[in-house]
User: What shape does this take?
Amino acid sequence: MNVYDGQRIAAMLRERGYAQTDTYTDADIIILNTCAVRAKATDKVFSALGRIRTEKKPGAIMGIIGCVARESGTDAFRRVPELNFVLGPQSYHKLPEILENPDVRLFNIDLGGLEKFDELPMPNTSPALAYIPIQEGCNHCCTYCIVPYTRGREISRPFNDVIRDVTHAANTGATEICFLGQNVNGYKYTDIDGTTYRLSDLIRAAAKLDAVQRIRFTSSYPTEMTDDLIDMFRTEVKLLPFLNMPIQSGSQNVLTRMNRPYTLDLYIDIVDKLRSARPDIQISSDFIVGFPGETDADFEQTLEIARHIRYINSFSFKYSPRPHTAAALMPDQIPEKIKSQRLYILDKLLNDIQREFNDACIGQDMVCMLDGRDKTGHHWVYRTPYMQPCIVDTETAPTLAQIHVTDANKASLRGKII
Assistant: This one.
């Protein structure tokens, strides 16, 4: 979501005569687009601001947008007096006001609606991978999650507006469409004629565009994985055989305290339906270890669900208390040492499973999409249908390429174009 927001803001600034610079010490305007999902992310923002305010050139405008702005509110000005603006995730379309009058501090963290999607210009060109937000906010109110506070309740964008953005992206260079939302498969929009659209309808419409070759979506909520959406994996070949479906914990007791209203049996049943619809589908997940009250037995159940599902890629984190959440007030907080130990054990298991899957890809041919240069600048990185990075040594790098996988490690594959 932040990548998309950053692209729209950059387009707005370019329209006003700005050009992007490689270093903030040369910049006339410095914008930190922020995430507050974990405490470490918020800490990094203010650490960066402390460094930037002493190194930026005189007169440069500096501000924060996004979820940390919403979380911190006016306290951000107290912590960093040099800030010129603090704008919440649904208010960044108000940036032109500060550009017109940089001497005035601009503060707006109202949750608002969907105005930002209409008020900022679309980029003239799209990257091969186009992120298309279809909804914002979340109604699930998990006890650990700050999103309902920073992004608000769920709002789905009008169907025609989303397809307009998809069409624009396809016409200006996009090959892959990734639909975005805090609860992306909760998308539901009813137009004035009473027709209701779901995520499956967006996928079906996007797939009709010849330029669009790959479609995916993130991040999904288990109970919103409806049969019509599962069936899209059976019928739509452009929908990638890969799905991130966070489970967070393998313990029913922990899921209840997290306010995640699904049973492990339901989650497993959804995975079984997905694998029946698309036998080559692979699943990734998110995990939180050390949630308040998590026992050794609870944690062992998390390891067990990871062994059972065989997630090919996952994001795992230590529980991080966030303001405005119920879990932060729970009395049975887990010591940091235990959280670190459990994260180490879980990561080792997940890494082993990921390595096993990567090794199984050796010898396969996959249609992959160009992602850019690797860190050395000497090789190209492609993304497989399962989002694995595949490093290729080639002079010519087409956007889409049939690649034969020749080698693998824990984090990536190697291959050659055929």
Summary: Residues 236 and 291 are 38 Å apart (CA to CA). The mean pLDDT is 94. Residues 365-417 form a domain with the OB fold (Dihydrolipoamide Acetyltransferase, E2P) fold (CATH 2.40.50.140). The radius of gyration is 22 Å.
